[in-house]
# Entry
Amino acid sequence: MEDRGFVMLDAPILSNEKTMKLYEQIGIPYEIWDSNTLKKRMPGINAGKYWPNKPVKSDEFWDEASEELGAIFSKHGGYISDPLLAAQNFAAAAKREGVNFHFRKLVIGIEKNNGRVSGVRVANYDAQSKKPLKEQGEVIAADLVVNVAGPWSTQINQMAGAGSDFTMELKPLRVEVHQISTPKDILPGPIMGDLDLGTYLRSGPGGITLVGGTEPECDELEWVEPDLVDEVNMTRTMELFESQTYRFAKRFPAAQIPSNPLGVVGIYDVSSDWTPIYDKSDVPGFYLAIGTSGNQFKNAPGAGLIMAHLINQVEMGHDHDNHPIIYQCVKNNLEINLATFSRKRASNTTSGTVMG
Ligand SMILES: Cc1cc2nc3c(=O)[nH]c(=O)nc-3n(C[C@H](O)[C@H](O)[C@H](O)COP(=O)(O)OP(=O)(O)OC[C@H]3O[C@@H](n4cnc5c(N)ncnc54)[C@H](O)[C@@H]3O)c2cc1C
# Structure
């Protein structure tokens, strides 16, 4: 991981006090930056305060700011410069531990025996349409099944007959992340969350800058029905490109925006409060690691430890729904009450964005 630090610009929907309390509890060093420090530490930044978010097509978007903002910074933040390689490394490590992968198969059913899951039914599929070939498929027997299907999580829940007791709703959201390379290394330092304008940014190999969105309320979000995930348009759009890169250019006025969109389209698996669901379900033997929105890649090792502990406890008879399991962290003495990630929780207080 590139440990370049993380700076979160002030925004009314964020609480620095809450973040500071958490950082202090865990022992993460941080600095509170006023606008002068922000300008010194992030050369080229426009520290203007623009909240609330405005559509880039509106006249108000171009208004000058009358005040400046500050930020909270931690040097212990960063990004994974090659997530594909990181995922391959995890897979290699899992194989070493005895995990078998079945590639190019579609899960088309969850098998049950006396109400408890007993395996998954998989089939070959047509690569173009992503539809299963007309065949019975084969059953892979399993003592328990964990739903880790990301944006397809609701489809897999339906196959298992799980979901009726959820208080959390899960919805896929189509998003885009754009890439700018002019001028190179405009943001060589920390990753930046800019909810004030509605973006998040980070640099990447070769001096590029990646710009994502933080779901500005003024923009129309592209929610997708759970059964239509495979129909999503995976081609970048000029509208989202402009919306994200113009906001970036406002924050870093030296940026030059290319005329063609470059970047990726992806789909988040979003829960009602933007917190993942790491839980059991009401179907015995069927577990959930879903609702991972746009922010759980780097949490994956921790999520794995939590899920393993939760599954072991529930399989040994622990009534997690009524007496939430407490997870003891490995690197410090802190405890995590796993009710936070329950499918049946009351909403957690979050920013209601990809920042969690
Ligand atoms: C644009 C974008 C940017 C992101 N940026 C970040 C970031 O900066 N930092 C961060 O930490 N996280 C980020 N994330 C979030 C991160 O990608 C997810 O949290 C993470 O990928 C979740 O991993 P997962 O394995 O649970 O699910 P996924 O990675 O979604 O994988 C689910 C898998 O299940 C498979 N599947 C689904 N249904 C079936 C079926 N019926 N049969 C067989 N296979 C099936 C899918 O093909 C897929 O391979 C981002 C996500 C997106 C979309």
User: Anything to note?
Assistant: The two ends are 21 Å apart (CA to CA). The chain has a mean pLDDT of 94. Residues 106-107, 148-152, 175, 177, 264, 266-268, 289, 292, 294-298 surround flavin-adenine dinucleotide (CB under 6 Å). The CA atoms of residues 150 and 269 lie 6 Å apart.
